[in-house]
Amino acid sequence: MSGEISPTGKRSGPGSSPELRASHADRDRVVDVLRIAAGDGLLTADELDERLETALSARTLSELTPLTADLPPVSATVGVTGAEVKDIVRIEQVHSGAVERVGRWVVPRRLELAVTFCEVTLDFTDAVITHNTLRIDVAMTGKTLTLVTRPGIVVDTDGLQLAHSRVKYRQTPTNPDTPVTLRVELVGQKAHGRVVVRPPRRTFGQWLLRRPASLSVDA
């Protein structure tokens, strides 16, 4: 009987050690699979948090293998989005149409925005998150940079220099136990226009079902 396939892609045979030590690269590969699976809705926030904690503290390959045994390979999952996971994505536009990343797009490790007088919208509602941090290098003049978040996503604007611009940050109340799945760091300069960080807009049905604030607060 052939052995199990380890996170490194190697098959363990009768003579191999079941307690082979896991490297940083081994743990990172498992973390990537878990984050992509969570972005596809295959894992709940609690399951993701629990498995990430186990993966990051794993010392052997045998500890990592069960964490992804019930999940599809990374290549198959990414194929659904029609894109590949990239470390750096650069967007350059001047006086042209709006720049939008919406729907099921794959979040890179780093995004460079060199944009002049173009609206930019980064919607993370259905985005596939493969890393825990996204650094956005901003070199943007005019118009509005909009980031649409979801529970578990936090945006840090402390590293952003504003020139004749302002930041509007609005978040919906979330469970304090919700794990942070992505930290977005904005650095660089935004001149003129605005930076807006907000949750998804309510649908018409949600507006019809909305309750008075006094009734929505838990006792």
UniProtKB/TrEMBL annotation:
UniProt protein name: DUF1707 domain-containing protein
Domain DUF1707: 20-72
Region of interest called Disordered, as start-end residue ranges on this chain: 1-24
Organism, as annotated: Streptomyces albiflavescens
Domain of life: Bacteria
One Pfam family, short name: DUF1707
